[in-house]
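Data deposition worksheet. Section B asks for the primary sequence of the deposited chain exactly as it was used as input, without tags or linkers unless they were present during the calculation. Section C holds the resulting structure in token form. Section D is free text for depositor observations; keep each observation to a single sentence. Incomplete worksheets are returned to the depositor.
Section A, Depositor: J.P.
Section B:
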Amino acid sequence: MDKRKKQWWFNGVVGALLLGSGLSIALECSHIKHSGGDFWLWTLGGTAGIGLLLSGVVLLIRAGILNAEIKASN
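Section C:
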């Protein structure tokens, strides 16, 4: 397997994991906020969740760009 194909797999898999985890954490912290949880918990957790979600989106976009490059070179 060539280098670009490995990068495509890595970006796609890790991007999907980060996207799902970040969304889950952000939604859970939203629930904690509305349940009257501690301010620091839902603030830090929500911020971390949104950060993970956006990192996942960036990696999935990179995977799409790599996929287009791989198809163009074949």
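Section D:
The chain has two helices and no strands.
Residues 17-73 form one domain.
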